[in-house]
Specification:
Elements: H1 5-26, H2 33-40, H3 54-92, H4 95-98, H5 106-115, H6 119-137, H7 145-169, H8 173-189
Helix pairs in contact: 1-2, 1-3, 3-6, 6-7, 7-8
Length: 191
């Protein structure tokens, strides 16, 4: 039975969604192709109709997850401007985000692993990080384009670092304090 182009695209999207979530939850090494396909509701054999290897899936799934975050942020920023930027920071630096890496930022969940992957994975991810910085820079207050870009890089770095450290600390009060301190520091730095 031949599958339509539309169904192939929908299947590929489903595989990317599932892989992105599982990779963010457990890392690349702890998730196999067979599990991704099973959770996606497809056979293991169907995988090779979409991807040449697990590495190809890792590159595309990680970039896809980051692309979705960037698109969501772009929508918020286009609608609400600087207020949207504050909302992004508040949501990002929240216990809800800390506790749900599978649904959260791919940089915070996979950054250290991405750095150890081959260039195909790193390059695909890096392109999306660049897009994310550009999206944030579009609504940074004041300054030249380069100054806004620099502020966006600092903002992203601070948010990712705070989430990573808060996850290391777990669901303890020190973790909550870390998120609160980061939110407070970013409030001050935006003024």
């Amino acid at each position: 039975m031949k599958v339509s182009r539309e169904q192939m695209a929908a299947n590929r999207e489903r595989i990317l969604e599932v892989a992105g979530r599982l990779f963010r939850e457990r890392g690349f090494e702890n998730v196999g192709v067979a599990e991704v396909m099973q959770v996606a509701g497809m056979t293991h054999g169907a995988f090779y109709g979409h991807f040449a290897s697990k590495e190809a899936l890792a590159a595309e799934a990680a970039a896809h997850a980051l692309e979705q975050t960037t698109a969501r942020w772009r929508g918020i920023l286009e609608k609400d401007g600087e207020k949207g930027l504050r909302d992004i920071v508040e949501r990002y630096l929240s216990p809800k985000h800390r506790d749900a890496p599978g649904a959260g930022c791919a940089i915070a969940a996979l950054g250290p692993e991405i750095a150890r992957q081959d260039s195909v994975v790193r390059d695909a991810f890096a392109q999306e990080v660049i897009q994310q910085v550009g999206t944030l820079a579009s609504c940074m207050p004041g300054g030249t384009t380069e100054e806004k870009r620099e502020k966006a890089m600092a903002l992203l770095s601070q948010m990712v670092g705070a989430i990573v450290i808060s996850r290391v600390l777990g669901r303890k009060s020190l973790s909550e304090d870390m998120l609160k301190a980061a939110r407070h520091a970013l409030e001050l730095s935006s003024k």
